[in-house]
Structures are given as C-alpha cells and as structure tokens.
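Still learning. Show one?

>
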Amino acid sequence: MAEKRSKTSRSSGAKAPAKATKPRTASRPAATNKVASRKTASSTATGKQQVSAPAKQARRKLAAVADVAKVTRRAVIGPLQVVEQALDDLKAVNVRVLDVRKLTDVADTMIIASGTSDRHVRSIADRVVTDAKKAGYRPVGVEGERDGEWVLVDLQDVIVHIMLPRIRELYRLENLWDVSAARREAAERSA
C-alpha cells in the first residue's frame, strides 16, 4: 500500500524531487581534459612530442640569434659585392666602378656597365635586382627596363647603370662622374 500512495502522489500532480544535475561549467573542463588527453595520446602515437614552455623560449632565442647572423652576413657582403657578382655572372661588358663619395651625397658608388643587346641589358638588371633582394638589399627604384637601352638600378649606396654601348658612348657618364678622367680629357683638349 505504500507503493500505491507514492504512485498516487506522483499521479496527483505533485512533482518528484528533481535529480541533482551538474552545472554546465563543471562539465566543460572534463570535456577539454578528454580532448587534451586525446591530443597527447595521438601526438605520442604519431611520434610528435609536445613542446614545453622552456623549449619554446629556447627556440625563440635561437631564432633571434639566426636573425642577428643574417644581419652580420649582410654587413660582410655589401651591396657593391652583390652587384659586382651579378654583373660578372651575366657577363656584363666594360664594367666601371666609380667612387663618388666626394662628389655627391646621392650615393657612395656608381657602377657603369654595358650589355650586348637590349635583352642582355634587361637580364643583367633583373639579375642585379634579384641578387640584391636575396642579400637583403631592396632596390629603391628601377628605371628603363621597358626599353632596355639604359636600365638604372638604385640600391641607395650603390647606383648601377647598365647600357647599350651606343647609349654609353652618347652620354659618357664616366667622364661626368670620374673627375680624374674629366681632367685628363680636358688636358688632352688643351694640348
């Protein structure tokens, strides 16, 4: 009869005591722990190891040292050497390197070279630009690539002029920037 009373009390509309449920926030960490344990189990199964915080710091320090090494390499290999190597690789003709520090503040060195054709001039200029970028020197500007008769590559401290021989003869940049050559030419004219 006790059973009947309890059944009748339920059927009479009285609510049974509610089950104690866990709050949602309490179940979330358990789920994340399961996910974390799955990740570690799968990472050990695949052979990957989890990296600890000190190991991450050590990797950051090594990356910083590598960045310093890049800057040191850049200081050792200057833009002048990069340009000279690129000109030599693509067989530029009649290369002149002029020190213009005493003449202008625009650049320290001016390089004048010739190519055998307009395609050769463009390819030399392209090689100078790509090699300079690889060495960490971004060109300020490149002019004249479209025509290919005279291409100027500005690397801030080094300005490179790559020209066809007839254009080079017409403008005579060596005489303009090389003071000793200009003095010799003036002495020859007066004599």
User: Anything to note?
Assistant: The longest strand covers residues 93-99. Residues 14 and 99 are 102 Å apart (CA to CA). The beta strands are 93-99, 109-114, 141-143, 150-154, 158-163. The first helix runs from residue 2 to 11.
